[in-house]
Design goal:
244 residues, alpha/beta, Rossmann fold, Arc Repressor Mutant, subunit A, 2 domains, 5-stranded parallel β-sheet, 3-stranded antiparallel β-sheet, 9 helices, elongated
């Protein structure tokens, strides 16, 4: 029997912490939730426990960037998915949190309960899919379908061999299109339909290069995207593919 999902809520304001806890319980009543209010207690718990997801504020007490230190500790120990919920302006801190490999960022007072729940559940689904792919990859790595997992509707957090690939949104759309038509040549014209600007071959090639580089950061032998001269690109399920 599998253990229940375990979540940590790290938030120094008690009413806010309790509100987040209630929202999580309303979405997933069977989840185990642990609340932490200080950096020291949170870091000790992260080292001790095996959380499936961590909801984290950046400011804890008088430490303006305590959450940054906690994320760094998480990444060193277990790379647990983190949802940041903070009053810090999203225009500034969203990119900072992404660079630290947080999975998403919600700015306090700018989102509703439904926004939080949707984001929280989406991350949990990604976590579940990642675990499933990790288990599958232990058994076999022969099929590209079992190696790449992505939701072409949400186009978020593609997972390759159990590890999340960080890609800009346009690159995610191109990847989704290539993978949906794997084995087929996807023309430049078809790829123009999924980019909002820069509808030219050079721009498409740059996006594909970005995708390849992102995959090779975790898999140096990645060769699944084939360049088809004068036509476009193809996702090939074998390793005998050409490079751009």
């Amino acid at each position: 029997m599998s253990r229940p999902i375990k979540v940590a809520v790290i938030e120094d304001d008690l009413p806010t912490s309790n509100q987040l806890k209630l929202w999580i319980e309303s979405a997933k009543p069977d989840i185990v939730i642990e609340q932490w209010f200080t950096r020291d207690d949170a870091e000790a718990a992260i080292e001790r426990e095996n959380y499936d997801l961590i909801v984290l504020d950046i400011e804890l007490g008088r430490e303006r960037h305590a959450g940054v230190a906690i994320i760094n500790a998480i990444n060193k120990l277990k790379a647990t998915p983190v949802l940041v919920v903070s009053a810090m302006p999203a225009t500034i801190y969203r990119s900072i949190m992404k660079a630290l490999d947080a999975w998403d960022y919600l700015q306090k007072t700018t989102f509703e309960e439904s926004d939080f729940i949707d984001t929280f559940l989406e991350i949990l689904r990604a976590v579940k899919e990642r675990k499933q792919h990790q288990e599958q990859n232990v058994k076999s790595k022969n099929s590209a379908e079992s190696e790449l997992n992505m939701d072409p509707l949400r186009q978020r957090s593609p997972i390759w061999r159990g590890q999340r690939i960080n890609l800009p949104l346009t690159a995610q759309r191109i990847l989704a299109t290539l993978f949906a038509k794997r084995g087929q040549v996807v023309s430049y014209e078809d790829l123009y339909e999924v980019v909002k600007s820069g509808r030219n071959r050079e721009n498409i090639r740059k996006h594909v290069s970005t995708i390849r580089e992102a995959f090779r950061e975790i898999d140096p032998d990645f060769e699944c995207i084939e360049n088809v001269p004068m036509r476009g690109f193809r996702w090939a399920d074998n390793s005998n593919t050409g490079k751009q």
